[in-house]
Amino acid sequence: MQAIILAGGFGTRLQSVVKDVPKPMADIAGKPFLYYLIKYLTTFSQKNHIILSVNYLKEKIISYFGDKFLNAKISYAVENHPLGTGGAIVNSLKNCDTNEPIIILNGDSFIQIDYQKLLDFHKKNKSKLTIVLKKMDDCSRYGAVEIDNQNQIISFKEKSQIISSGLINSGVYVIEKDIFNQFDLPEKFSFEQDFLMRYLSEIKPCGLVVDDYFIDIGIPEDYNKASEELPKIINFLDSLNNPLYCNKALFLDRDGVINKDHGHVYKRDNFEFVEGIFDLAKKAQDAGYLIVVITNQAGIAKGYYNEEQFLELTKWVEDEFLKRDITISKTFYCPYHVDAKIEKYRRDSFDRKPNPGMIYDAVEQFKIDVRKSIFIGDNDSDMAAARGASVGSRFLLKDSFIPKNII
Known about the structure:
By secondary structure, the protein is α/β, with parallel strands linked by helices. It has two domains: 2-233, Spore Coat Polysaccharide Biosynthesis Protein SpsA, Chain A; 240-396, Rossmann fold (3-Layer(aba) Sandwich), CATH 3.40.50. The chain has twelve helices and 19 strands. Strand 18 (374-377), helix 12 and strand 19 form a beta-alpha-beta unit. The longest helix is centred in the middle third of the chain and has 20 residues, at 220-239. The protein starts with a strand and ends in an 11-residue tail after the last strand. The mean pLDDT is 93.
C-alpha cells in the first residue's frame, strides 16, 4: 500500500494550543497526530510506502519518523516553498515507486475507514480518482458534495452558513499516478479548487460514502476532542492482535432489549423486562460470555432524571439478574447529548452511540475479543456502534422479540 500524507500545514488556527511544531505534529496524549494517522493506515497492509509532503518545520517531522516507521518505508517530498495541496501531491508523486493506486490523506484529519475496502472500491469503479465522502449533520464548515446513483460526483458546493446535512469531502482520496498528465497545471495550485472543481467533468471522480468516525483538528475544540478519542481508537486496534484480550461478551442495549422502551425509563414502575431476556442472558453466561450493558441515557442530559436516579435503577436491574444467577459485568452509559438541557452534559461524546466509545472502554476493562462477541440492539445506532467496534455478531431486534438462535 502506498500513500501520500500532506503534512506541510502551518496550523494557524491552532496557535493557541499548538506551538513550535507543524500542525500534523500536534500532541495527542504524548504522541503527534501524524503518528495516529500512520499507525492506523499501516494496520491494513504489511508492506507500506508512505510519502510525507513537508514544508513548515519539516525537520521535526523528519527527525521523529526517519526513513522507516512501524511497518512502513517513509519518504519525504520537501516543498522548498508552498505549493498548495495540488502542487504538493504532484511533487510527492515523484517518490511513488509503483503504478499502484495511491491513497492521499490530509495531515490534520482522521477517518476510521477500511483502507483496503477503499482501494477495492476504487479498482472496481475503474476511476482515476475516488473521494471518500462523509455524512455530516452540518456541512457549513466544509461545503457539500453531490453524487448520482452510480457513485459519480456531480457537483461541489462552497462552504455556506445555510448548508445543513449532507456529504462532505473528507480529504481522503485514491488517485492513479498519471491523473495529472492530461492537464496543464501551474507549479502551485489547490487540488480542491483548481483541479477537482475546475475539471470535474473531465475527471469524473467517484465517491465512496461512509458514516465512520471523522475528526479534523483544524480548530481547538476538535483538537481537544481528538486528544481524548484517538488514543481510544488506537488502543482498541492494538487489542485486536493481543492474545490477552480473549474474553467474549454479550453486549446488550438496555431500552428495547432488556426492557420495553416506554421512553426515558427511570423508575421501577415503568421498567418492564422483555420476555426471554433472562433466559438469553443465562444461556450466554453458561456458554462463557460476559454480560455487558451499553446504553445511551440522553434523559439525563435533557433533565428528565439525574444520574443518581439512573444508577439506583441500574443497581435494581443488576440485582434482578443476580436473583436468577446472572451477573452483569458492568453497565456502561453515556449521559451526554449535543442538545442537552443541562450544560455539563452538552457535548458530542465519542461514547454516545452510534460511536463505539463505550464498547472500546468495555474491551479495555474486561479484555474482550470483540470478534468472538455478540451485540444485541434495537436501532441503527446500536448496529453502527457494533460495526465500529468490529463486534463479530450483531442482532437488531424488532418489537422487543428475542430470537431463539442468538446463542
